[in-house]
Amino acid sequence: MAKAKKTVVYKRVQELRESTLSHLAGEYQDALHYTVELRRAIDGFRGPIPDDSPHRYLRQDVGDAILAYLTRVGKSKSIKDLVAELESGGCIFGMIKSPTEIVTKAVKAYIQSGRLEWADRKQTLVGLPGEK
Amino acid sequence: MKRERLFRRIKITSIEALIAALSPVRFPDDQQITSVEIIQVKREIRTNCDLLLEYVHAVLPAAVASPGRLIILNQLRRDIFEVRSECGKVSVNFLRPKHKRILSRLRAAYEEMRLAAIVVCQQEEPALIDSLTVAL
């Protein structure tokens, strides 16, 4: 009797787990579909997002966002300032790697290609070439 | 074997395909590392390097129109070659167990390559950054 009751409870738990999983998978699929549709809709528009928008860097990669910001402010900035600006502008960095690491890597690559340069000897400020 | 050859012909042209093909590299935590473990880690790293390089070569021609993309892809390519060059270095007395610091340069180079791949992913598919980070 007790064994039969235990089996019924186990089956019910299993059913609940399976239906929850199925529901979550459905929600996830809908979210993915919605994301793709949204992206397509955003890409349907031309031109930049306004400078005061909290999503101004959403369509730009890290390097281009830094270039846009430095061009706009017209002076050199530290990595910390760049990270703060990019984060406030909706740049996507993910959850695992820190934004500082990603921004530093992008800055170094752009400096190597000559599109950005260190503005001081200690290499703390990043600026556009010929801006010192 | 035939199946393997068939799959090798498939080019990795998207971040999704890259993530599916990569396998995470785990550096040994023990103080002493055997030569077998070193060879194993280097083999895994080389495989990931080849996959990343395949992706870079597949997307590089289309990136010519976008300077930012080109800069980051070239950075990733440089980092891949750096990692491969570190993989090729063999120490003397190779068969004896080594201290784990023997892999420190390789670990640092691999981390740089990983970061470059993340920056590339940030440009192409920002939603997949974390998936790529875990896959490497």
In short:
Chain A has 132 residues and is mainly alpha-helical. Helix content of chain A is 60%, strand content 5%. Chain A contains four helices and three strands; from the N terminus they run ααβααββ.
Summary keywords:
heterodimer; A: 132 residues; Arc Repressor Mutant, subunit A; 2 domains; three-stranded antiparallel beta sheet; 4 helices; 3 strands; elongated; B: 136 residues; mainly alpha; 6 helices; 2 strands; 68% helix
Question: What is the element layout, followed by pairings?
Answer:
The complex is a heterodimer of chains A (132) and B (136).
Chain A: H1 2-43, H2 62-73, E1 77-78, H3 79-88, H4 99-113, E2 117-118, E3 125-127
Helix pairs in contact in A: 3-4
Chain B: H1 2-8, H2 15-21, E1 32-33, H3 35-63, H4 67-87, E2 98-99, H5 104-124, H6 129-135
Antiparallel strand pairs in B: 1-2
Helix pairs in contact in B: 3-4, 4-5, 5-6
Tell me about this structure.
The complex is a heterodimer of chains A (132) and B (136). With 132 residues, chain A is mainly alpha-helical. Chain A has two domains: 1-46; 62-127, Winged helix-like DNA-binding domain superfamily/Winged helix DNA-binding domain (Arc Repressor Mutant, subunit A, Orthogonal Bundle), CATH 1.10.10. Chain A is built from four helices and three strands, in the order H-H-E-H-H-E-E. Chain A has helices at residues 2-43, 62-73, 79-88, 99-113; strands spanning 77-78, 117-118, 125-127. A three-stranded antiparallel β-sheet of chain A has the order 1-3-2. Chain A is elongated and about 85 Å long. Chain A starts with a helix and ends in a 5-residue tail after the last strand. Chain B is mainly α and 136 residues long. Chain B has one domain (12-135). Helices cover 68% and strands 3% of the residues of chain B. Chain B contains six helices and two strands. In chain B, helix 4 packs antiparallel against helix 5 and helix 5 (104-124) packs antiparallel against helix 6. The model of chain B has no long low-confidence stretch (mean pLDDT 86). Classes of the chains: A mainly alpha (132), B mainly alpha (136).
